Amino acid sequence: MASAGETLLALGGKRTTGQSIRTQNAMAAMAIANVVKSSLGPLGLDKMMVDDVGDVTVTNDGATILKLLEVEHPAGKVLVDLAQLQDEEVGDGTTSVAIIAAELLKAANELVQQKLHPTTVINGYRFACKEAVRFIQENLALSTDDLDRTSIIKAAKTTMSSKLISTDSDFFAEMCVEATNLIKVTDASGKATFPIKAINVLKAHGKSSRESMLIRGYALNCTRASEAMPRKIAGAKIACLDFSLQKSKMHLGISVVVEDPSKLEAIRREEMEITKRRIEKILKAGANVILTTGGIDDLCLKQFVEAGALAVRRAKKVDLKRIAKATGATLTSSLATLEGDDEQFDPSLLGQADEVVQERISDEELVLIKGPKARTAASIILRGANDVMLDEMERSLHDALCVVRRVLESKKLVVGGGAVEAALNVYLDNFATTLPSREQLAVAEFANALLVIPKTLASNAAKDSTQLVAKLRAFHYKSQTEKENSHLKWAGLDLENGNIRDNKEAGILEPMISKVKCLKFATEAAITILRIDDLIKLDKVEKQQHDDECM
Amino acid sequence: MLRGGMPGSAPIIVLSQNTKRESGHRVQLMNINAAKTIADVIRTSLGPRAMLKMLMDPMGGIVLTNDGNAILREITVKHPAAKSMIEIARTQDEETGDGTTSVIVLAGEIMAEAEQFLDQNIHPTIIIQAYRMALEDMIEWAEKKFSKPVDVKNETQLATVVKSCLATKMLANYMDLAVKIALDAVRTIDVTKHGYHEIDIKRYCRMEKIPGGSIEDSSVVKGVVLNKDIVHPKMRRRIEKPRVILLDCQLEYKKGESQTSIEIMKEEDFSRALEQEEATIRKQCDEIIALKPDLVFTEKGISDLAQHFLVKAGITALRRLKKTDNNRLARVTGARIAHDTTDLTEEDVGTLTDLFEIKKIGDEYFAFVTSEKTTAVTVVIRGPSKDIMNEVERNIQDAVNCVRNVLLNPRVVPGAGALEMALAHALNEKSKSIEGVRQWPYKAVARALEVIPRTLIQNCGGSTIRQLTALRAKHAQNADKNWTWGIDGVTGELNEVKDPDASKSWFSWAKTDMNTLNIWDPLAVRIQVLKTAIETSVMLLRIDDIVSGTKKKDANSEAVMPE
After folding, report:
1. Which of A372, A422, B3, B556 has its CA 20 to 30 A from that of B198?
2. Is this complex scored with an ipTM above 0.85?
3. Range A217-377 classified under CATH 3.50.7.10
4. Which CATH entry fits the domain spanning A6-143+414-537: 2.60.120.200, 1.10.3210.10, 1.10.10.10, 1.10.560.10?
């Protein structure tokens, strides 16, 4: 069992050093990458994850797959975190980032075995990464400031092509672009941002995915508190409350002691009256839609019903915050005023919307806030055969929304389908030969590692990857050496037919930022793991004792 | 479990030891098998010759049903793909309330058809694309070519649809009754207000099961039936045109929410405190009596003292209602639910009720609050045993949903496997024009659709191959004219689905013309079956890897890795 680099420590842990740990790390990374490999690309397939309770998740998203895997190896964990990081930063490309990082590690391990010092490899990788990013930005980016709608839709479609909803990608891409445009916010400096989280995605099973819909407004997964309330209110004035409209009571442990029995009844009455007065104030301010995170006593419902107002109780606070933003309302947590003498509800705290209506969708009822005044809002209601499917649809849609946002923000696109990777490979290969130092080897390996993306794409599509990739490289070599053939730099894989085609024409577009971040993150992660030359794993129990002694 | 290793050293453990992983072709076959297994469980519950299943739950209770969803709900399965299959029955039930068996059988068959292509190494995404194409075409054809509008005002036509829905159920023996119940119930709760067409079965159509009597005694009550007796024996048990007050507060003394304690110094204070409690109740009762109601319902309790006051005023009172019942009563009586007696006004009193009556049925008392013009309805189900009544309830639920579907989307398609056969034929024709490998899976959908007529024949013991080929030939001979030909699920013979003669009532018509079938299903149900079945199989076919024993989403076990 014990190999040269593995010695038993006195502490009762295990220590692995030198080449042995590097190989181990590279192996672990490859193993992780292999798990997600088959989900890359338009012909990639999904994974079904079953947890210990038996809950099922079906997904194609690299980050989700890795998150659900119980990875034990420390190097493997770095890769899992890497995918998570990419998910948070860009939202898409999580699978590719893990695959590239693993490939880089594998290549580095081989170089080190050839007695190249890890720091040299690291330097080479850094150098190559920088050069690659520069090349993308200068030569491969489609800087289209006047980004027309079609190319944004194309980018969204590219993301979705690998997902469950690929056959309906036209439909969903339209929806994503529409939704993202609806939530556009221009900040003080005139820069437009798109807070994707503001899009409320609701899931209701039934019907088919085609019947998912975009609602220009906010959909709240609640029903009105009483049947007697109106179903629809036009010209709504919305109050967002963060407290309960229930009989007020003293905090626990406070007891009111009275001597006169008649006071007891007075206390009882007052409990009710306090809330009633509050509601009266809110209604007097002109509110006809009241949303609260707390409860509403049945006792008080009558007041709302009589005023013809629509009240919703137990709404989620996040929802209310967003509604408040969209309608211009202020989420009020108490009616107390600064003067402190009396409670007030100022009409300026109210938000406005064209219409608030309760609608039945499938078996559920939703309250829809349409046409909010302050800002446009968007909600997407997903339909599908079952919950597992809806969850995956939500993840796919989230990826697509992120991509649309990135495109709208950075306004730069690159061509997908392995085109960028192949171009970089050719470029870096040539670039490496100009380097007189040892880094040359590392840069060349970096270039080769990138080819893993087109290779995996081709092999997932059950195509001859070796031949296709060779062909693809030839195209890119031509484009970089011969001026008149420079249009060939858009050449990418056509996985349906197993050919090379102009992917710019075919509309396979990805946001540039996704590719750049992907390269940067993968390089960083590879470097982090590469720097390790010693792994000390302590036994759990021993460690605890050790800690106690030390501290 | 993943292991990598290099020669001469220990294997490197990357994933947790208790993770199991299966991938590739095996997984696809496993998923298909799971789907097929589930479909096989309920295959015999399809069609008019369907048999019931008896299911025993761990508690020893039994469920007796042939409703696909009800069967699968009780089955515990382990395989993740089988779980998704079970879920689609639920989806179908929630969305349309009917067609739960068909959706499972069809989904199972579509999955099974995919197996041969996977064996031939056709990429799943190609199969999926073809399935999707087929789905789109089918929906278009079903909506445009193979359906006809139905006149929602025509009782005969509606009855036909309900009859088709019920023919497969236990209630088939009480067809006339069940059809009448379903139609009456839905007609009553069908309201249009604020331009919003509402048929809210969940809230306003309730089933009240009363053991005893026979199934024929079941009826529709226009109003509310409550399993409650009056609180005081002296109260009136039958009131015509009562004035009704609905309350949501107790008529008894209740302490406040805050913790209060009273320190009594003098003797008289003690009696004062008691008197005060009495006075509170008296005040509440006086406020009610002032409005001269005949009936008082409350969701909370009524104390003995309050009962006394109410009896003296000649008011009948019922206590501890469910919130939902109270809402329905509000709709029947026109009263507004009051939450406090102090602000009761004349408008809160409901006067729309025709009759209030307490009846003793079997061993229990039931309160009937009825009104001719009401929009809330209760279906009283009678039957010899609880299990049978449960099944009757499910059947009526299906029938009621069926009526709702037709009213909301007034188009019907021929049942008895005719629609499936017509679609299968159309798909077959179209498949010839499809280029590339996709043609085969596209055609496979057509074959999968034939499972519905095939199962119909099988379940009644007909000659599957002979009848199915005959039916296929019939559709092929003249697709435009013969699209209504289907399988008579009782005899297993070929038959044409025809319109009932509108001039005759349905029941007399059925007796005179036995040679044609009269089975029409709501379009909404059949389309939902197609959509759900195809979408689920698409999802399951995309899977090439099953990892089980993964951690829960949020629980992140921290790494022990000191520097």
Report:
1. A372
2. no
3. yes
4. 1.10.560.10
